[in-house]
């Protein structure tokens, strides 16, 4: 495969492409080219106000330089999506002109072919959040990218950072990693609008299958939720492998199988089936623990259990230490990610990665938080910690540790200041500052000042 021809992009002149062979062997170059998609809202730079992606990339570069002194380096390739892509590739296009386009045409305004070609070639990216219109318009570009490149696992670890004064008193017990299936479920975008010809056809078909008009009104909009054994199993396999590698105590299959028996319930059944077929010697199921081991997990075994999604939301709050790796279908994973992140201080710190077999895109759990656009105010921590996941993926553990330790130091020093009473100067952004008793949002610093403080700690390490 040779470098694609771009309309407006210029690839970095130095650096090495991460190839499918590198993915297969898990041996990555010391100078990888990584696509950087800054994103919309808080992701984008506005005038002299840097967005969170720029702030995060600056910290990541500082950590690599400190850890490897020039022997390793990320070569960023700026590619574009969202509002920036619209103004670059379709300057002057009006909202009405965009509305008149079909879905594919609308998508191309915000996700140009250049961007797809570049990511398809380079296969590795760090991405800021992108806006999705609500109730109409094009499908989510974020979701589109995950489907297009078969980034089937959305991996979102959430761990308490010492020094963050999270309101939940169980915060320090949180150490979970969500594996959210990324390519199925209601996210497939198969929907039929109420009253449309297609909705009427689908309803007519359902009537033929025996579903009566009191079950599905003629006026209903319809959404389809496909969940397959192949795609469930590959996600659950990755979750179990991760848990075994990290010596995690359990994998919980989180589903709503009591209500959606053949999708969510099947996800759970396929999970147990896979665990027994492929990992029999390393795992034990919760049923087996009670039937054969008096309720105690035998030493060295990974516990496979399942929970119904609604109960899971209270479990994570009341008994977070009983959960470590969670494998779940797409929509549950979306809801759970934000909820678990809230336990440790909020989505400003919630990192994530979309991982496939031959490509990966690292991105925060949160969205564009549009009201903070151009204010240099939002927390760059989630994108930064997504960069830490990128480092771990590349096996750059020294750089990953430098960033994590320096971030922790930045929280810890603010905690020390806050303990002395209100009125001190903190080094964290508004969202973390407001959690310290007696402090408010105004005690926080800008995104760039928080990033710079982390860099100072990296230099001092
Ligand atoms: N992967 C992606 O690109 C994603 C994109 N989106 C899209 O983002 C848009 C906005 O979505 P919305 O529902 O408002 O959710 P957001 O996650 O963008 O924001 C919700 C709230 O979370 C807090 N927050 C989010 N990010 C940060 C941060 N970095 N630092 C501090 N606080 C933060 C803010 O809380 P507070 O108001 O309390 O300060 C914010 O108002 C939508 O178009 C949505 O589709 C959503 C999720 C993921
Ligand atoms: O694509 C979007 O706009 C939302 C995606 C989202 O909420 C997520 O990935 O967690
Ligand atoms: Mg979400």
Automatic annotation (TrEMBL):
Family according to the record: Belongs to the isocitrate and isopropylmalate dehydrogenases family.
Domain of life: Bacteria
Location of N6-succinyllysine modifications: 127, 268
SMART domains named in the record: Iso_dh
Positions bound to D-threo-isocitrate: 140, 142, 146, 156, 180
Cofactor: Mg(2+); Mn(2+)
Catalyzed reactions: D-threo-isocitrate + NADP(+) = 2-oxoglutarate + CO2 + NADPH
GO biological process: glyoxylate cycle; tricarboxylic acid cycle
Domain Isopropylmalate dehydrogenase-like: 33-454
Cofactor descriptive note: Binds 1 Mg(2+) or Mn(2+) ion per subunit.
InterPro entries xref list: IsoCit/isopropylmalate_DH_CS, Isocitrate_DH_NADP_dimer_prok, IsoPropMal-DH-like_dom
Gene Ontology molecular functions: isocitrate dehydrogenase (NADP+) activity; magnesium ion binding; NAD binding
Site (Critical for catalysis): 187, 256
Coiled coil regions, renumbered to chain: none
Phosphoserine found at: 140
EC number: 1.1.1.42
Binding site for Mg(2+): 334
NCBIfam families according to UniProt: PRK07006.1
UniProt keyword annotations, A-Z: Glyoxylate bypass, Magnesium, Manganese, Metal-binding, NADP, Oxidoreductase, Tricarboxylic acid cycle
Subunit structure: Homodimer.
One Pfam family linked to the record: Iso_dh
Annotated binding of NADP(+), by residue: 131, 366-372, 379, 430, 434
Top enzyme class: oxidoreductase
Protein name: isocitrate dehydrogenase (NADP(+))
